[in-house]
Design a protein that fits this description.
Length: about 260
């Protein structure tokens, strides 16, 4: 990463809303309420979805609500943030498999309305362009769900990723590979590259909901909320967006 692309400066930052929850369950319920009410207001909403351990409870809540109250996803569109390079959709560790297992197979969403970057596309640059165009053709993301990496990454935008980036291929840091290794048989199996929506795609979303749980995220959240806006902490860019809500539990907010 050359020096010029590293942005660290004082900027006018927006007020981020923070919803403090007692634990993971409350965080998941609050996030689900927000998504359900957004679908009620706009049944053909474009949802930006995230993977990782953090949103699993939220997806469980959505499934339960779908069963109990019949919230329908028939007209909903989804775009996922990222996918591992080299994993076919049917690979059990792909984010496509994750989404099917954790959400899509258990609600009435039309699978043709769901979108995830193709990690085995023969030309990843073309795939990145296709994904950018796809997001645009849907009219942009209405509500983007985000987790946060321990190093402040969002999607797979690792520290140092330009704020101007759109969908691209990125080499994963060792800390991210190690953090994600629990989903694989061993660290060796964790892919070294991923294809991810860029920071600019994320910032183009009309509204953003960032979820965080547990003390391993506390430092990143502290830097996001009180530190400087810098490409070294990709999530800090959210301070430049005017409609961001953080839903996090006590442990993740212990320094706030
Ligand atoms: C992964 C995903 C991110 C996710 C983050 C946190 O690498 N690409 O989208 O937000 O790491 O994951 P977890 O929720 O498991 O802590």
């Amino acid at each position: 990463m050359n020096k010029q692309s590293t942005l660290t400066k004082k900027v006018n930052t927006m007020q981020i809303k923070i919803i403090r929850c007692k634990d993971y369950d409350e965080m998941s319920k609050k996030a689900a309420q927000k998504i359900i009410s957004s679908i009620e207001k706009k049944p053909n909403i474009v949802l930006g979805l995230a993977t990782g351990s953090t949103p699993i409870g939220l997806y469980k809540e959505l499934i339960q609500d779908h069963k109990l109250h019949g919230t329908s996803y028939k007209h909903v569109y989804t775009v996922n943030l990222d996918e591992y390079v080299g994993l076919a959709p049917e690979d059990k560790n792909s984010y496509f498999s994750f989404m099917k297992k954790q959400l899509f197979d258990k609600i009435d969403i039309n699978l043709t309305h769901t979108n995830i970057p193709n990690g085995i596309a023969p030309d990843l640059e073309e795939e990145s362009k296709r994904y950018n165009q796809l997001i645009e053709s849907l009219g942009g993301v209405d509500l983007q769900i985000l987790g946060i990496g321990q190093n402040g990454h969002i999607g797979f935008n690792e520290p140092g990723t330009p704020f101007t980036s759109t969908t691209h291929t990125i080499q994963l840091t060792e800390s991210t590979r190690t953090a994600n290794a629990s989903h694989f048989n061993s660290l060796d199996e964790v892919p070294t590259y991923a294809i991810t929506m860029g920071v600019q795609n994320i910032m183009s979303s009309k509204e953003i909901l960032l979820l965080a749980s547990g003390s391993s995220k506390a430092k990143a959240l502290q830097q996001l909320i009180n530190g400087e806006v810098t490409e070294e902490l990709p999530a800090s860019v959210l301070r430049l967006h005017d409609n961001v809500t953080i839903i996090a539990d006590e442990e993740a907010l212990k320094y706030i």
